[in-house]
Q: What sequence folds into this?
């Protein structure tokens, strides 16, 4: 199938997906479409499923690309790799199931395993925030799950304020870089910002690992 068809098939699950994003992930070695005689890419069903897996774990677990690439390599080698974490399923008032929807505090506690006091602390340090109706987004849920894993390793929740501040500084750097492009085309600026965010996240992971290795 052509790249446009791939994007169309995955767009329902990943609304922000674009042709340039697919090409970027190809350049990072996550997929390897074959090329026909005129040099055009042709994507197989296997390429489609690899993309779906990569996009799901990137969205739901905030994994950097090198970790996703490693997981795919393990799958290629028939070594069991973790499946994407399931997201919460929220039941609306009319009884309809809504995937990826906002949830109230009670649902957040159930799906994250956090206590109410821990949620209050995460709100206080600025890692999560409810909307005007007191509901929490799926991004909030993923943030709480990660925070719970970190605190189980011995890091107090209050210390995560520094992580938030670091992310905000990196976002400011990206914002300054894409400002000229955004002034010409808002959509192009936003797409570039997302791509830069992925690159900065990968670089941050490498530098953090290097710094941690130096501690020993």
A:
């Amino acid at each position: 199938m052509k790249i446009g068809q791939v994007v169309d098939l995955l767009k329902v699950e990943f609304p922000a997906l674009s042709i340039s994003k697919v090409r970027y992930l190809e350049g990072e070695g996550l997929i390897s479409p074959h090329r026909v005689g005129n040099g055009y890419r042709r994507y197989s069903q296997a390429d489609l499923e690899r993309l779906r897996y990569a996009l799901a774990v990137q969205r739901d677990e905030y994994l950097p690309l090198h970790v996703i690439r490693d997981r795919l390599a393990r799958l290629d080698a028939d070594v069991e790799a973790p499946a994407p974490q399931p997201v919460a399923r929220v039941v609306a008032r009319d009884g309809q199931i809504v995937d990826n929807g906002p949830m109230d505090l009670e649902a957040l506690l159930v799906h994250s395993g956090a206590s109410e006091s821990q949620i209050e602390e995460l709100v206080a340090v600025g890692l999560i925030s409810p909307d005007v109706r007191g509901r929490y987004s799926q991004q909030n849920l993923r943030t709480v799950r990660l925070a719970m894993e970190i605190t189980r390793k011995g890091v107090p929740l209050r210390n995560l304020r520094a992580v938030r501040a670091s992310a905000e500084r990196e976002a400011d750097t990206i914002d300054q870089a894409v400002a000229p492009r955004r002034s010409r085309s808002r959509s192009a600026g936003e797409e570039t910002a997302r791509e830069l965010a992925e690159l900065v996240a990968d670089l941050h992971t490498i530098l953090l690992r290097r710094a941690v290795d130096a501690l020993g």
In short: Residues 160-215 form one domain. The radius of gyration is 19 Å.
